[in-house]
Amino acid sequence: MDRSSLLQLIQEQQLDPEHTGFIGADTFTGLVHSHELPLDPAKLDMLVALAQSNERGQVCYQELVDLISSKRSSSFKRAIANGQRALPRAGLLDQPGLGVYKRFVRYVAYEILPREVDRHWYFYRHRSCPPPVFMASVTLAQIIVFLCYGARLNKWVLQTYHPEYMKSPLVYHPGHRARAWRFLTYMFMHVGLEQLGFNALLQLMIGVPLEMVHGLLRISLLYLAGVLAGSLTVSITDMRAPVVGGSGGVYALCSAHLANVVMNWAGMRCPYKLLRMVLALVCMSSEVGRAVWLRFSPPLPASGPQPSFMAHLAGAVVGVSMGLTILRSYEERLRDQCGWWVVLLAYGTFLLFAIFWNVFAYDLLGAHIPPPP
User: Fold this and answer.
1) Residue limits of the Peptidase S54 rhomboid domain (predicted)?
2) Which among 25, 246, 315, 349 would be 20 to 30 A from 144, CA to CA?
3) 10 Å Cβ neighbour count for 174?
């Protein structure tokens, strides 16, 4: 049902004859059933939630229009926060007869979202088009680049030790700081098959469900913010080291998701969440430990410093700050939240500082960086 049809229906049925700006929830629900209007069950549930937040059991006319238009209003958020939300229908897990794809959508809802009302909202309004193309495209591009360089160098592990590897125009190298694209394109290069496999697995297992729920724009912003923060942090804290791999973006996604799970522990319904949390932390810590080992104790002779591990840590910080703000704001406008602007201000300040650092600090400090390949 579109906005114009809703307005016409309300006018014809005179649901607000006194022009008070409010409509009885029971009256509107009965109208929906009597006219067999195609209104999502989740929206009917939310209509009840809005009515329960009103002393007279009424819904503001504008809030009703926003609900039909799939806009999550602040009043609905307050209805949840005040504990006045009661789902009249059974949980999604109790629904039989679902197809394979709808079962996968239900699985994603319980993996990502902490509230049953949000799971209903996502389940009923989810559409398969557009698909989660960002994470899939990034992963595919990383695999293709790795295969190309692997075939060219005839080396599939520890590729950074090959003298030709660092000559790639995609790798971030401190000697090529003026080539600004390298601060992002390094995410397509990887040390070896082990790092690519770890990152690709997490991007598909965590990144794709997050993109399905929160959308391409938000998840791509979070991922790229982690990647950019990773290279900039390395340029400040490990000035002689290059950077390769998409770990900055991967750790931003994983840290945001894990932090969201911890902060909504009671509401998360994903199975074996404690065991999975421990395994995720162990795997992420092991990857950081491996990167530290390769940075300071290279197993093979190298012509220069090996890639830094600081991108992992920078991505995790971005995930806990910016990422957590995004994941906790499902279907809510970020620009209406004070915390979002605080995070953006902090990130923008970091970017400005990093830019000035890269322009002036290397010469002022007399940093001895390896010659660019």
Assistant:
1) 179-328
2) 315
3) 22
